[in-house]
Amino acid sequence: MQQFTDCHQFINGAYRSGGAEEAKRINPATGEIAETLRYADAGDVRDAVAAAKNAFPGWSRRTPAARAEALLRLAAELDARAGVLAALETAQTGKSIRLSTEFDVPGTVDNVSFFAGAARQLHGLAAGEYGAGGTSMVRREPIGVIGSIAPWNYPLQMAGWKILPAIAAGNTIVLKPSELTPGTSLLFAEAAAAAGVPDGVINVVTGSGQVAGELLVTHPDVAMTSFTGSTAVGRRIMAMAARTAKRIHLELGGKAPFVVFDDADLEAAAHGAVAGSIINGGQDCTAATRAYVQRPLYDAFTARVAELMESVAVGDPTDPGTDLGSLISHAHRDKVAGFVERAREAGATVRAGGSAPGGNLAAGAFYRPTLITGAAQDSEIVQDEIFGPVLTALPFDSDDDGLRLANDTPYGLAASAWTRDLSRSLRASEEIAAGCVWINDHIPIVSEMPHGGFKASGFGKDMSMYSFEEYTNIKHVMFSRDATAHKDWQDTVFRSR
Ligand code: NAD
């Protein structure tokens, strides 16, 4: 397994140790100490920002083709490290090796390839004459040093989502991954250096949110903060960024509804609900969390979902036969279990799971796929983000009710609707307030399409051409075509004499 002894920071093209406290990383699947880390202190963060600032003039002035070439080489470098990346992603998160191998790593490589192409397609409006006597054009310019902060659930993919649109557009970056999962972000930066991305363009500082994260948000030379994580921390970052009036990009929590209409394919919906709620241990901001099922299908749906959940293979994440590995940490597993216990005490029914497996999994942070029925719509298990393999199910009668319930949380990241009726699917796609609505599926993402939230799930888009709106400044340049000393519009201000 890749170890990062004394090299937990990647600054200006080189690994180094951090200046802050030592921390232990626990393997969540075994409970054993996996490695000792040295986190970044203020000096490390300052050095990383200085390196990014230094690299900005050179990188931003490279042609799009030159930046694209480096990204294409990065895709190849990452692909060559696919096995190491997948094994490390599983070791630090506890997610199944199948997910790391078939989703995280290829998804990241595809993202790199996409942004290599996208770097050459940064168009604006055509130049034109919009006012008398003037020709206008729009320049799309990189912003400067981007400070990015990422969560632990998909560390490698999040590194890609943060770094790629930023550097493809000509910015430079300092990324702070979660303190729980720094490894694959460090490897990403190393691969970029091997691909010829110049020193200082990508820097990774690892450490806690309170130290490294806050320093990055408040640093005056960081032009923009791009954050993915919980809504609570997002709000705090928004307030901190106000001090320097920084641009911010916030991808926050989710509580995705899963609306099953009475004409849906029951088997498809049940399979979709299980896969969509247990993916990545349910630690996916778009995971299916609230099933609303029209009454005629409700009993059959909940029975089938409970049956399928009991068949999920929970176990050693490194075993290719495992469907569901461990959660990120024991503390997080206990938090998930707490939600389920409180729902049970409040009178809800646990139809599947609802406990941690024992036996040889007892030492890890495992939790079984869980289906809860009979919880109140306004209860915490339906309203709050649990971030574990827990699905609630509630019945509804009219289509109006189903769509109203779908929108009845503060979040708005993703949703799905299950129906064979075209009008219903169009209505659901229009009326559900979320950044993504799937029809008859739940979870798939593609590099070409935007990802991002509404409401308390944040704002701004990752992936796709839309992400460039986040990482570029739009500048209006106007050329006067009037060669005379006196211009007519000036008469409005002062009459020429
Ligand atoms: P978190 O908010 O606890 O932490 C996210 C990052 O912020 C970490 O790197 C952490 O160190 C840092 N941080 C914490 N406090 C900070 C502070 N005061 N200042 C600066 N940085 C700080 O989230 P998490 O537990 O790592 O991840 C889970 C959350 O991420 C869930 O809410 C999930 O929905 C969300 N998420 C959202 C998306 C999306 O695209 N919308 C994607 C993945 C995860």
Summarize the structure.
The chain is α/β, with parallel strands linked by helices and about 500 residues long. It is built from 15 helices and 22 strands.
Features:
alpha/beta; Aldehyde Dehydrogenase, Chain A, domain 1; Aldehyde Dehydrogenase, Chain A, domain 2; 2 domains; 7-stranded mixed beta sheet; 6-stranded mixed beta sheet; 15 helices; 21% strand; binds nicotinamide-adenine-dinucleotide
Global Rg: 25 Å
| Helix proportion | 25-40%
CATH topology of the largest domain: Aldehyde Dehydrogenase, Chain A, domain 1
> Uncertain runs with pLDDT below 50, 5 residues or more?
none
Overview of this structure, please?
With 497 residues, the protein is α/β, with parallel strands linked by helices. The protein folds into 2 domains: 9-252 and 457-476, Aldehyde Dehydrogenase, Chain A, domain 1; 256-439, Aldehyde Dehydrogenase, Chain A, domain 2. Helix content is 38%, strand content 21%. It has 15 helices and 22 strands. The protein has helices at residues 42-61, 64-80, 82-93, 97-118, 155-168, 183-194, 209-218, 231-242, 266-278, 295-310, 330-345, 380-383, 399-406, 422-431, 467-471; strands at residues 9-11, 14-16, 22-26, 33-38, 128-131, 134-142, 145-149, 172-176, 202-204, 224-228, 247-251, 256-260, 288-294, 349-352, 370-373, 390-396, 411-412, 414-418, 436-439, 454-455, 458-459, 472-480. It has a 7-stranded mixed beta sheet with strand order 14-15-16-13-12-18-19, with helices on both faces. Helix 1 (42-61) packs across helix 7 and helix 9 packs across helix 10.
